[in-house]
Amino acid sequence: MSTIQIKDRHFREYLSQDEIQARVDAIVQELSGKFSDKHPVFIVVLRGAFMFASDILKKFNHPCEIEFVRLTSYAGMQSTGKINITQPLKEEIVRGRDIIILEDIVDSGLTMDFFTKYIQSLEPASVTLVSFLFKPENLQKEVKIDITGFVIPELFVVGYGLDYDGEGRNLPAVYQLAL
Ligand code: 5GP
Q1: Domains of the chain, each with CATH number or no CATH
Q2: I want to staple 70 with a disulfide (CB 3.0 to 4.6 A). Which of 22, 46, 147, 179 is the partner?
Q3: Residue 106 Cα, ligand 1 centroid: separation in angstroms?
Q4: What is the pTM of this model?
C-alpha cells in the first residue's frame, strides 16, 4: 500500500486507480442509459471535480454541453460553511435543460444544498447530482445524491482532483490522511 507525503502530512492509498476507473465506467453506463437522447448540460464543480469530470466526459459518447462553476467553502482541512460562487454560470443555459452536476465530494452537504437550490431556482427540466465521494457521517443538510461513486467514512482524503492546502489534486488515486 503506497504512502505519500504532502507538505506536513502523510497519506496512504485508499482507492486505487483501477477501483476508480471501474466505478467511473459504471457511472458512465448509468448516465448513458438515462441521457443518451437528452442533450444534457453537465455542470462541473471546480476545482475538485475536474479529474472525475474529465474521466466521465471522455467516455460519455452522446451530445452534451459542459459548463463550469467554481464554488469555495474549504480552507485547509475545514469547511468554512460559507459558500461562494467565484466563477458563475450563464443562467440562460440552465432553464428548461437536463442538468447533470459533477461534484467531487459531499461532506456536510452545505455546498450542494446551496448549489442545487440555486440551480433549481433557474428552472431546469431536471437535475441529477453525481458525486464522486460521499461522507454521510458528517451530513448536516439533506442532499439528494442521485449517483455516488464511493461512500466513505469520516476521513480527510486527497487526490483525483481533491487537494490538501493546494496540493495533491494531480494524484490519479485517492489517499487518506494517515494519523
Ligand atoms: P461540504 O459543503 O459538503 O461540507 O463540502 C464540500 C466540499 O468540501 C467539497 O467540494 C470539497 O472541496 C471539500 N471537502 C470535503 N471533504 C473533503 C476531504 O476529505 N478532502 C478534501 N480535499 N476536500 C474535502
Answers
A1: 24-158 (3.40.50.2020)
A2: 46
A3: 6
A4: 0.95
